[in-house]
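Issue: copy button drops trailing tokens. Both records pasted manually instead:
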Amino acid sequence: MRRYGWIVVALVLLGSWAWLQRARTPAIERVPSATSQPLPDIAPRDNSALPSLPPAREASGWPAFLPREAMVTVQRIQRGGPHPYRQDGDSFQNRERLLPSQPRGYYREYTVDTPGARDRGPRRIVAGGDPPIEYFYSDDHYRSFRRFKPLHAEARR
């Protein structure tokens, strides 16, 4: 009877170890930046109003994986706000180490609106640097990231 107890404990420990290893696997996908026309600036109407959506990403040259709402979020980041959620601009800790290692406070998180969501939804942009020099998009609440480079980031420096 004791022999079977140790086997069960060993199987549980092995399964836990395998699950943790799967959770630690980096999921960064490096995406080359596109070279095309920058998006026009969208002037904020007031602090409570959100800007209208920019042109379709195919016409703008932005990476195809970015939703149009992400482009609006990037423009808000580059303008310095206003941001619609109080958590926007908070430090992103990178606890899972899915992003390149940087000092604490280097990464900031921002919400990408999710149409139909009753809360902030799962989509985020994490920007690194002050001012931001690198950007990562997550559509699954930080489980995976895709690196991208805004088209007009160089023109603003």
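Record 2 (pasted manually too):
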Amino acid sequence: MPGGVTPVGYHASMSSDPTIGVVIPSMGKRPVELAKALECLRTQTGVVLDTVVVGNGWEPVGLPEWAHSVYLPENVGIPQGRNVGAGAVRGDLLFFYDDDASLPAPDVLRRMADVVLGSPRVAMCQPRIVDPDGRPAPRRWVPRLRVADGGRPGEVAVFLEGQTLMRRRAFDEMDGWPGAFWYAHEGVDLAMRLIDAGWAIVYAPAIEVCHPATAPTRHATFYRLNARNRVWVARRNLPAVLVPVYCGVWVVLTLVREHNVGNLATWFKGFAEGWRTDPGPRRPMSWRTVLRMTQLGRPPIV
């Protein structure tokens, strides 16, 4: 298989094994973690993998022979890096995989593939994300309002971007991730578009993927992009009457949650940027989608 890896336990005659294109965006700053992420892929069974490491402003080196790479001279951001990687791998399924994540069992990808392929409506599967050292999982990792025991399985209206398996046909129909977002809320945007197109997103907490429990505020651009992209999500996807409601709710939530004056100032600068800059194509969702997201526990005003 050009550029790919034949996982342990795979034989050419096993035509039922799904082919998955694995996309790992990386800035090259976590070589130990990247090596572990790749080693976990090598041990996956019941799937055929075509793996690419997308070097965002970094030329990947020292990769195993079964993984190939794409070098981007400049960092184009996480969502656009994923888009580039998706175009460099084959497979009816795509696995978007952070370079500091790991797969704790050899059947993780096969089980996720079975979820997606189990129904033609399903576009995506999000597993339960757990910290490898047992630290509490951040609230944002669970696509449910109630997070006890990892939250209940089933269809959801949001998902965590970094460890997600997606049907390529759905990915192509949506024109991929919103590349201009750079970082933050690209998954919110994609989820809204998928649901509006009739696709389902499934949360499968019985399947676990490991990722360090880190705070998003560690990124220098967090507050600006968090605010700008919230506005962009609304302007791109919501019926006109809901745009100011959604944005207003997030202003209130930010004021309640954040008390650092400097961080708030940066957030509101990003918020203003979201109104004066081009968010990309506007495709407002139907009111049926508004109702569906509400039924799923995430009305598109928050």
